[in-house]
Amino acid sequence: GDSVTQTEGQVTVSESKSLIINCTYSTTSIAYPNLFWYVRYPGEGLQLLLKVITAGQKGSSRGFEATYNKETTSFHLQKASVQESDSAVYYCALGATGGLSGKLTFGEGTQVTVIS
Amino acid sequence: ETAVFQTPNYHVTQVGNEVSFNCKQTLGHDTMYWYKQDSKKLLKIMFSYNNKQLIVNETVPRRFSPQSSDKAHLNLRIKSVEPEDSAVYLCASSSRDWGYAEQFFGPGTRLTVL
User: Fold this and answer.
1) Do A102 and B42 touch (CB under 8 A)?
2) B3-13: string of b/e by CB count within 10 Å (b at 16+)?
3) Is the N or the C terminus of chain B less surrounded, counting Cβ atoms within 10 Å?
4) Given CA atoms B98, B100, B106, B107 in this order, what sign does their dihedral have?
């Protein structure tokens, strides 16, 4: 089956410091799954942050970056300098079944709190 | 406004009752989904529909039944709720019926079963 494992629980980071949220995936469905980061800001719905569908490529959005590494089956999310507005819950997700389903498998989510 | 709308926001009920949640998207998408987010914040797909046709049906108890009247609406009915059904139910939609287009999520319906 498909599974996603990401940095557990809560992460607290000071403003202007760097942030990394680890994400590794496993799939038996297809060789090259599509990988996503979704985010939920306080009071808002879950929304796409970035997406990469080709192994070896990097996605970026709002200062965040993630590189699709097929060798290590990882898709870590990084930001060089966080702001308080980056406080949110981040979810790594995998799309691997192909065909008509569009089904996504999510990680457990990581609560990020940025303090000043 | 174009978005994914869910009603109600919250629902509290007792074991054995029937509940229904509504979802409507005004984004013109063909595919809609229901996800369940449990107390540990884990998000799991339950169903997906494309143009009113069921595409994905995960191993969900039979008391759960999705209902789609048209491609813009996907409701969820739970017959005889159980305590383990307490969760947040998220509805989502996407523009393509295959592949992995961006999914747009509603705000969720929080169900509490007493």
Assistant:
1) no
2) ebebeeeebeb
3) N
4) positive
